[in-house]
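Subject: complex prediction, re-run

Hi both,

The earlier run crashed halfway through, so I resubmitted it with identical inputs.
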Amino acid sequence: MGRKRNAWTSRAFLGAFIVLTSLCWCPWAYGTLAGRVLGIPTWAVVAYGVAAALFVLEWVYLFCSGLAVSDEELPAIVSELKAAADDAAPAKEGARC
Amino acid sequence: MLEIGIITAICLASVLVSYAAFRRGAARSADDYFVAGSSLGYLVLIFSLLASFVSAFAMFGISGMAYRLGFGALFVLTVNLIPLGFLWYFLHRKTLLIGRARKWMSMGAPFGDRYGTTMRAIIPIVVLVASIPYLVAQVQGIGIMIETMSGHRVPYEVGLFFAPAFVALYLILGGMRGAAWVNTVQGIFFTVMVFVLFFAVMNENGGFGPTMDLVQQKHPELFKLAAQGGKAWSYPMIFGLASAMCLGCVCFPQPYMHAYSSRSAKGFKVMILVFGAICVVVISMTTMVGISGRLLAPGLKGLEADRVFGLAAGKTLPNWAAALAVAGAFTAAMTTVISVVFGNASNLANDLYKLVRPQADTKELVRLGRFCIAGIVAVCVLIAWIPNIPVADLAIIAFGIMAVTIFPLWGAYYWRRATRFGAIASTLTGVAMNLAFLVWGLANGTGMLLTPQPFLLHLNGFLVSFIVAGVVFFGVSLATKPGAAERKSLALFFHPSLD
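This time it finished cleanly. Structure:
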């Protein structure tokens, strides 16, 4: 149940991320705004606003959502991976193509 | 020549700080030399990452671009970098975790473990190819700045040798631990100096608002995007530059090296979140310094616009303060050279040379790394000798080339069906297309790698290369079967603990 909820939460974050990133990479919805606010173009102010919203979203995802890896989990994950790495031989042994 | 004296003193101080840091850290194994023994705290991580990315490009390049093209430059290295918080986490979470378990030390290591030795050998070459224009941008920027600050008494060609000589010296003395500490000090220093210069420039015309009013009266086109009738900044152009820079940031060696160097998960997350935000603050200021430069130093054309940062400092600050402001930018360029040269040396030593000589010991690898550093810097000075591309454009070209490795990286961590043939074909195709567009654009003067072209469906060469690289990656991966290397790697790269 918890895993399912996490999956939906992750998808919600991903959706918001895609929308806000597209706005940070291209002013497609606000590039035609005219005028200036505090000396700079209105479209630039909107771009800063979108960037600020995305920053907050990333902060929540990384530190408050419980979805990102934490220091409490780190040692256990690394030791499990070390064990797995010992089993899975590295590429240099028989991995030429 | 007071300005040059101050810059020289700051460079010498960098060497001393680096060497002191090295002497303090007792361990001198290859692990310490290359990734600081995974021991860097997040303050050092943040500022060393910032200093390793923020460079002559961010200072002279962006201010020069803003001088030429206006506020649209905000989409090149400020607001477009905020998505890095997610992108870096998504693409480098496994770099952090598996890297720690496998003790990775170079960018090629994850590709080698996932796709085999051929991909491991290709990555350092691709990184080197992409790094060259980026490093040339730094060396060129430093040469221009030395010439500008000395009032042309030190020729550009002599200035080219200034920083690389210092960089080689303290890299050879210090290694990553030293460089990280120096980067931190320099990162804080240039951040403060950008603030100082910004306020000095704005104060010259009675504050920020009045300065922008004056600029708009004389150059209203700087405030417009193409949709409003401006000459530059069409949406395809903005998207092409913004995505190239952001995706390139993910794929450059610095995020790999800093993921390996991170002491904790929290440090890693703070670093990737704060990086974009600091860029927005600091580089917005250099952008606006460039725009205001239209009032302070009118009439600069083409490559000349890269001088606006130094000229604005010279016209608004006392000589010693102007020298400090420019020295801040100068150290930013130096730290980037350090980071990129160092990453390349590490890649060449750990990925390429170890393939040829698996029995190579630590001493041999460190020695080779030093030779690589000297060689790379020498090549960049040679190319920068006759500058013909603005600093900003050089850097964007580098990031665009590097961005094509995002598909093999994503496939390594998130697509079980990815094959080494897909990764190799995609990387080679993307890089080759970028280089072809670069050379073609230089030959016919269209700059088609960065400027949208009608015959490319109004996309620029980077975006076309990027899309084709993605199609090739998926197509070839689906058309070929995963080999022994890929199948074996699944146990590690898709371990349940990583879900």
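The two ends of chain A are 43 Å apart (CA to CA).

- K.
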